Amino acid sequence: MKLCPICLTENTGGRPHRHHKLAARKSGHTLEELAIAARATIEQNAVKAIVMDAVDEARHPDHWRS
């Protein structure tokens, strides 16, 4: 399985998606800068999901969900 180096989703050939290249060209940033920003966002979303799961667990410790 080959992943896009920017967003880490499966991609043919493991090359950046076309929309990443267009975004880099429009914004004036390099693909490396976009990759750093994307990975920071992925990490922030993962942390947010962990915190949300912990809050749900604290509200309903017996795994009850509405």
Shape: elongated
Q: Quick check: average pLDDT?
A: 89
- Poorly predicted ranges: none
Largest sheet properties: none
Q: What level of helicity do the residues show?
A: 55-70%
Report on the structure:
The protein is mainly α and 66 residues long. The chain is 59% helix and 0% strand. It contains two helices and no strands. The longest helix has 29 residues, at 31-59. The N and C termini lie far apart (37 Å). The mean pLDDT is 89.
Output the keywords.
mainly alpha; 0% strand
Layout of secondary structure:
Blueprint (H helix, E strand, L loop, with lengths): L17 H10 L3 H29 L7
Give a short synopsis of this structure:
The protein is mainly α. It has helices at 18-27, 31-59.
